[in-house]
Amino acid sequence: MAAQRRGRDRGSDSPSGVGSRGAARVRMTGKERRQQLLDVSRALFAEKGFDGASVEEIAHRAEVSKPVVYEHFGGKEGIYAVVVDREMQALLDRVVSALSAGHPRELLEQAARALLDYIDNSTDGFRILVRDSPVASARGSFSGLLNDIASQVEHIFGLQFSARGYDPELAPLYSQALVGMVALTGQWWLEVHRPDKDEVAAHLVNLAWNGLSHLEHDPVLRTRG
Length: 225
Prior knowledge:
Shape: elongated
Largest sheet: none
CATH superfamily of the domain at 84-224: Tetracycline Repressor, domain 2
Low-confidence stretches: 1-12, 14-24
CATH topology of the domain at 84-224: Tetracycline Repressor, domain 2
Structural class: mainly alpha
Order of helices and strands: HHHHHHHHHH
GO molecular function, one term: transcription cis-regulatory region binding
Helix content: 55-70%
Keywords: DNA-binding, Transcription, Transcription regulation
Radius of gyration: 22 Å
InterPro entries: DesT_TetR_C (IPR054129), DNA-bd_HTH_TetR-type_CS (IPR023772), Homeodomain-like_sf (IPR009057), HTH-type_TetR-like_transc_reg (IPR050109), HTH_TetR (IPR001647), Tet_transcr_reg_TetR-rel_C_sf (IPR036271)
CATH class of the domain at 84-224: Mainly Alpha
Protein name: DNA-binding transcriptional regulator, AcrR family
Mean pLDDT: 81
């Protein structure tokens, strides 16, 4: 009877810590289990990519049986799509919420710093996003996410261009250029992590705001006090 109960536990959605060490199990609700599987999968996808990860390893790291993973997400593709969607929304929310200052240069600073903050604080998530995803998520690809962010910047650029006598139809071009520059620099900075975030953001804004012909020698962020 005890053996049957142990077998049922391995296939159930209740355990959170098992097995080879004989540690005591803690029951999880369905919501808690789903979040645990997402956390485990997020780390695994960041480490090995979609192709390198497997349902077997997700289940092993979560200390559940494979059917538990299938029950919640239908397979590796399903859990990967949810992980990507969540990361995209988190990054978009971070950038959009950062755009609060009135002066255009300060808005550029806030957008650049928000992306670098995300890269620094959610490194696993960013590594997942910048890989070529083999699975179509609800929000599309990383390039689609950058388009979402660029559309927010485009609106701000359009207002500023109109107010300053520039052609507002050029706003999409400039917003794509700016977001692409920051995103690619962020990928590079993820690997080298130098200089620090404020200095990287300051130099990005220096180039975007002043252009190569009027670069400041020692740029600083005005919004960082």
